[in-house]
Amino acid sequence: MTGPQLDGLCVRDLRVTFDGFTAVDGVDLDVPPGDIRFLIGPNGAGKTTVVDAVTGLVRATGSARFGDRELLGRDVHRIARLGIGRTFQTASVFEELTVVQNLDIAAGATRSWWTLARRRGRIPDEVAAALETIGLTDRGDQPAGALAHGQKQWLEIGMLLVSDARLLLLDEPVAGMSHEERDATGALLETVSRDRTVVVIEHDMDFLRRFARSVTVLHAGKVLSEGTVAEVQADPRVQEVYLGVDTAPEA
Ligand SMILES: Nc1ncnc2c1ncn2[C@@H]1O[C@H](COP(=O)(O)OP(=O)(O)OP(=O)(O)O)[C@@H](O)[C@H]1O
């Protein structure tokens, strides 16, 4: 079975202005297919706004292409249907529904009623596969509200997988997680990136050092530095912004 087509994200001269304040100021970003790109920077650097622009939540000028498709100018739902999926800092799962029901609903977003009707009564293959990928196979029948914090984040990632997202934009996925949950999340990102492209906004420098394949540092709406973890850490401009490389900024 062949996996989904791997595409990269190419952003050019991205600008977002709020009432005269320029939050994103001419950002260029090349995230190659299958990358795990970490987007870091101090509070207010523009990280979330870049993701908001790419997913259609805020208006932007410039260009953001995923594969050969321009994303800017399309509405949120259309962008999602092009295979762009995101998570927010707070997991948004349906707490009273089971894990499988949450995944089923996410899968249903791209399925016809006929396909759904045909599948009633058994777990669809893609839902079973996602359950395994996110490590929740034995939790399928539990209400999502009963899951631990980390498991809810994984369920949300699973919901993106079954909805055929091929570019995952994750906003602080390990915030509030235990050490073990962070390890499991890193392993999940590595698995997911085999046939998808991943962008992670994160403040956790230890997590970044272990799982980033490449890093973009934003500062005051612009790209300050880009490269491997080692390259970015060695960049004096980054050290200046962070007042010492090893300390993560306050979230
Ligand atoms: N809807 C909005 N209206 C006005 N200003 C906004 C809006 N959204 C974001 N901003 C401003 O744009 C700038 C960039 O914000 P953004 O949330 O993208 O930063 P960030 O790098 O994600 O920060 P953090 O790490 O704190 O989440 C900030 O100065 C913020 O106050």
Estimated radius of gyration: 18 Å
CATH superfamily of the domain at 9-95 and 160-242: P-loop containing nucleotide triphosphate hydrolases
Distance between the termini: 42 Å
> Strand share of the residues?
15-25%
Task: Describe the strand arrangement of the main beta sheet, using strand numbers.
Answer: 6-7-8-3-9-10
- Provide mean pLDDT, rounded: 90
Could you give the order of the helices and strands? EEEHEEHEHHHHEHEHEEHH
Helical content stands at 25-40%
Question: How large is the count of helical segments?
Answer: 10
List the uncertain runs: 245-251
- Overall number of strands: 10
Q: What ligands can be seen in this structure?
A: adenosine-5'-triphosphate
CATH class of the domain at 9-95 and 160-242: Alpha Beta
Pfam families: ABC_tran, BCA_ABC_TP_C
Keywords: ATP-binding, Nucleotide-binding, Transport
Protein name: Urea ABC transporter ATP-binding protein
GO molecular function: ATP binding; ATP hydrolysis activity
